[in-house]
Each structure stands twice: as C-alpha cells, then as structure tokens.
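ok so heres the complex, three chains, lmk if somethin looks off
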Amino acid sequence: MTWYLIGAIFLLGLWGVIGLKNLVKQVIALSIANSAIIMLFVYYASLSGEDAPIMDTAGIPVDPIPHALMLTAIVVGICIVALALALVYVLYQRYGTLNMDELEDRIWKADD
Amino acid sequence: MTEPVLLILFPLAGSLFSLLGKLVPAKRVCTALALSIFAAMAVVLFLQLPLVLNGENLTYALGGFVREPGISLILDGPAWLASALIVLISLMVAIYSLDRPEFDLRYFFFLLMLVAGMEAVVLTGDIFTMFVSLEIIAIAAYVLIAWEKSDEGLLASLKYLFLSSVGILFFLLGVFIVYRDLGTLSFAVIAERIAELKTDPVVLGALSGENRFPEKIGSILQGYPGRSINFALAALCVGIGVRTAFIPFHTWLPEAHAWAPHPVSALLSGVLIKTSFFALFRILAVFHAFHMHSMLMWLGSITALVAVGWALAQSDSKRLLAYHSISQMGYILAAAGAASVFSVPAAYTHAINHALFKGLLFLAIGHAIHMVGERNLFRIGPLGRRSPLIALALLFGALSISGIPPFNGFVSKQLISHALDGSPAYILLWLTAVGTTASFIKLSRIALPGPKDISGFRRHDSNHRHSAATVIPLVILSVLVLLSGVYGAGYTRFVWRLVGDPSVTAVEFPALFKVDKFTDSLIILLLGIALYFLVMSPVGKRVAKRVSGVAPKLGTVLTFFVFGLALFSIAAWR
Amino acid sequence: MAKTDILDVVARKLAPFMLLFGLYLVSYGDTSPGGGFQGGVVIASGVILLAMARGVSAAERLFPMHRLSAAETAAYGVFLAAGVVGLVLGVGFLGDFTRPGWTNSPLPAARFIFLLNLAIGIKVACGVSLICMYLFRED
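and the predicted structre for the whole thing:
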C-alpha cells in the first residue's frame, strides 16, 4: 500500500511539473516529486530493521545507508528549489507573469 | 602526488581561494591563486599518465573507507583522458574570462565548482556520488548560464533547471532500484552482480519466459532483480540523457548554450555535455548493456541529422553553434554504439576534437559578438580585415567541424566512418556532414576579408580589443586543432592506448591521408556548397524561417521525457 | 497584512531554543541521530523564524549577512583543511589524523567526526539562512 502511495505522490509531482501553468506551483511540484523519491528510499530502509542504527541497540538496526544518501539528496533538492525560486522571482519582477509559455513567447520570439 | 582525489581537491581549493576574495582586499592575489590550481592539476595529470598508460587503474578510497559504502575514486584510461580534456578547456575558458570586469571572483568560484563536479563525475566509483556530482555541475551551470542576468539567459537557465531536475529524478529512481535489487552502489560490485545474474538459473528462467516472476517485487537484498534492473538502466540513461542532450531530450540546449556568457558557452558545449556522455558510457559498460548499443547508434545518427537541419535554419550565430553541438553529440553517440573495436576510441577522439574546435568556435564567435555588439551572423559582417585573428580562428574551427583535411575533425570522422563501416546508419551521418559543411559556409561569411572599417558598427571597448587574455586561448586552441589533425595517426594511437580494448592486440588503424578519403571530403564539400545555395535561395529562407520558429514548450518537452523513458525501457528489456 | 502578537511572541521565545537544539544536534552527531547537516538546518530554521516573524532587518541585526558569509567561507576552509591534513599525514583525504601515530582505522574517532560535523553545521546554517534571507529581503 505504502509503495503505491509513494508512487502516487511521485506521479502527482510529475503531473504538476508538466501540467501546471504557474511557475511557483511547478517548482513546488518538482519538490513534491523529489520528496516522493526520498520517501521511497527511507521507507525501503525502514523495512530492513526495527531499531535506530546507533551503537548498542537492542533490536535489528535499520540499514543506515539510504538515510545518509537521502540527506545528501535533500541538500541538493533545497539548492535547486532555492535557485529556481530566485530565477522565477527575477523573471516575475521583469515581466509580471508566472506562465512559462508566455515567458518563452515574449522573451525568445522577440529576438528573431 | 598521483592520488586521483587531488584532481577534485585542487578545484575545490581554488574555489575556496576565490571565496576568500570576499574577505580580503587582495583580489588579484586571489584570482592568481584560484587559477594556479590548473597548473597543479596539469602536474598531477602528467605524473599519472605513465601509470595509466601501463594499464593500471588508480583507485582511491576517501577517508580510508575501503569497504563498500565508502566513496572510492577510479582513474583509468578513459577517466584520465576526460580529466585532461576538462582541465585543458576550462583553463582556456578561465584565461579568456580574465579581462572582462563582469567575470569577477564569484564567477571563478562557480567555474571551479563546475570543474570539481565534472572531475568527480568522471572519477567516481559509485553511482550515488555520480548523482551528487551531476547535481553540483548542474547548480553551477544554472548560475553561470544566468550570469549576465539577461532575460534570455535567466529563462534559458530556468528551462534547463526544470528539464534536468526532472531528468535527475528518474536517475535517482534508477539508483533506488539498483540499491534495492543489487544491494550495492559501487560500480565494480554492480558489474560483478550483473555478470553473476547472467548465469543465474532463476534469472535465466525468467529471461527465457518460463518463470516470469522469479521473486516478489521488493525482495530485499536477495539478488534476484528480475526485470526491474532493466527499468533501472533505462531510468539512469534518461537522467543522464537529458544532460547529454540527444533527441528527444535536447530542447534545453540551444537556448542555454546560446544565451550563456561566451566563455561559459564554450565550457558547456566543450566539456559539460561530454562529461555526461562519459558518465552514460560508463553506466552502459557497468551494466553490460551491449544490447542497447544499436539503439544508441540509431538515436545518435538521427540526432545528428535532425539537429543539423535545425542548425541550417538559424541566423543567430551562437544558436547555430549550439545546434551543431547537439549534432556532433549525435556523431559521438553513433560512434559509441557501433559494433566495432574502433567504436570507443572513435567516440572519445571525436569528443576531444569536438571540445577543441567547438571551444575555439564559441570563443571566437563570442569575441566577434563582443566587438561588434551584434549576434545575427548576417549582421556581424565580414571581420577578416578588422580582426584577422578571429577570422583565422573561425576558419580553423569551421574547416575542422566540416571534416576537411588536415584538421582534427577529419581524423575523427574517418575513425567514425571506419567504426560504422557498412552500417546503414552511416548514410545519415554522411548526410549530416553535408549539412554541417553548408551551415559553416553560412557562418564563414564572418571570416571574409571585408572592409577595414565600417562606420555603422558600434564599437565596444575598442581600447582592449585584443588583450593577451583573449588572444592566448584562441591561438592555443587553433594550434591544437591543426596539430591533432596533422599528427592524426600518432594521436589516434595515443587515444587507443588509453581507451582501446586491451584484449585486442593487433589493431589495424585506418590510413588517414589517402586519395579516396580526400575525394570523399571533396564530394561532401561540393554538395555542401550546393546545399548552402539552396538554403540561401528565397524558398530556402522561407523554410528556414518556419523551422527556426518551431520551439517546443516546457510542458511538451517534459512529456517527451515520458516517451523517452518508455523508449529506453523497451530498448533495455532483455 | 496585519501581524498578530502571537507570532511575534512565539517566534521570540522559540528561536533561541531552536538555535540551542541545532547546536545539540551538531555536537552529538557522532553518537546519536543528527549531525552537521541536520543541526545546521535546525539552526538556520531558527534564524528564518526570526526573519519571518520580525522581518529580515531584525534578523540581520542579530546575524549580519556579511558575517554569515564570512563564517560560511571559514567553515568551508576548515572542512577542506581537515581533509588535506589527513592527505599530508598519510592517512588519506578526510582520513582521521587525530589518533596517535596517525594510523588509520575504519572507524574514525569521535573528536574527528565532531570537527567535521562542526564545520558542516556552521556552513549549512549560514548557507541556508543566507539563501532565505536573500529571498525574503524586500528591496
């Protein structure tokens, strides 16, 4: 069940990036899809044991590698989202629109 | 002094020096320190060369973690070649950027981060470090593309960001499946497990269709990946494919490379897309994915032909070069996918040659644009008398990319034709060569002699037009383009020793400078001239206007991704 | 948009504890869940809470941006230097050089992990706060 839920979240994020027409929402959707992948790793790791991977635990410790990997992925995700929002912000200040199609039409077509 | 980690450590140290520029007033000292790291990297590469030529694989475990989850670096022949290429081109770009005020120390910070990321991609020994390094590259590249804060640059950067972020999500999904099914991230262990799987009776049963589902999905660390590992391979290919920019993932590249600052364009087209290609090739090798090679060959050939068609239609000089980058990546991909002992050396040789001549072309065109203040190639005007250096550099680059002897493009195109010998895909590449020649005849009008001084030109900073910082990279790259062509035989032998298959001992290299090769080049040249006149005719101009106006929107391109993933999944199925 | 006093009071009371908790996470990263990155983000979230509740200028009075930027550079330098020292002493890049005799072992000593965690924590805290403060700043 959880697998399907995570898959649904991933697809939701993907649909948001493809289908939505507002750049801020698209950035958020990208972040959601990224979170789905992170949950995928973390949920998988949580199946491998029952206790926190600290020294001297009683139960079987969970596999700590996915957590370490996902921390890195989260950092990367933060940087991407921050950079994307900064770019969107500057473009919005200059053009007053958050629609990617409109921006592409107005900026790139103007040159030819 | 031969530890592979030094190649990543030096650019990181250089970026630290350029950050120190914020704190201390001595900016020039910081710049000098930041750029001196290229010399240090060159020394390290030089010391490593004899070891690598002996066939040693230098490995290095970070922090002394030799066991599996530790991060390890591997320096073998291909990685050495890629590292050397990265150092060379980024040094040229850094020198070129020196005398412009807008490229300050913060710019060098991002440049050096980009270099560190690229080195990490080619040296890394595990798949997750590859993901992180690809993202470091990407973040530095987004910032550098938008560096001039022009509207076009900002939008190009944003589009690149969306596309490559979605691509890297697929990559991460692939990493997950690899970790779930094979229980490892290290390339060496992945290769071992995949090789084991090929002889595993349960998996063999699944492959032959007798036992379709050998294990429940999600079997933990059992080592029975079934077919999901093929999907992982497809997802990894899509993630890197977006960076490598072959069809259908190419749409970000023309805008990003055209609107980035000129030296950054040279770096992006020269080495950045090559780096992801090297990564793609390494992943294919690790997964023993030889069954995907013919698909890559066709994809590459189609990419080459289609992109050159779009390039012919462009009148913006930098966008024309950007489309040619896609087209030449198609060549490299087609060569890599060919079933021949020469396929890998041919791909690497062309990758290096393309980095040299495309770097040269972008720097020369960039300087012409900077001088004249105009991007349209019909309006830049003939510069031959005003600036013979730019004209000569452009001519060298154009002759090389069109595969005219004795420049280095000729050498690698001969190798590619040798590798693809007899394959129907070669016809597409041959047609591409005609298109390339035609579009560079179009571009070469900038190099025509023309009048000495035209009053209509706006003059940008005429006082330091030809400073040493701009002359040196152009001269060095021109000389390299010529020398690697003239001494093509020795050069291809050197590349073969680094990347060739060591089990093949008796290699017969194709003879480069022979009469029938020259006649082939001549036919391509003549057809190219004919095509040029066709494109410049009124009908051709109208078609070109229609073609260059077609630009898929972001949403459309992202749906291409899903199709691309499906395509790769079908190709990866076995 | 009118601000309520609740946000103001809660932010002022909560932010110091968030900073403290962040420091705790950084310093106990070698024995318990936590570590440089997590602790750094918690510290940064304290700064961001201040910036959101009291305005960026108030947060800037406590944490001037140029200081944050300098601290970030310094932390980056410390991290790289810690790696290079290991390389020079022969235990490898990022190897643990704090053991007597500079012998490497698969499990680094707690003090070495603490050093690295501290550098990462400062870097992440400054970096994330700077990103958000630049984005929130009204200019």
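quick notes: Chain A has a mean pLDDT of 87. thats all i got rn
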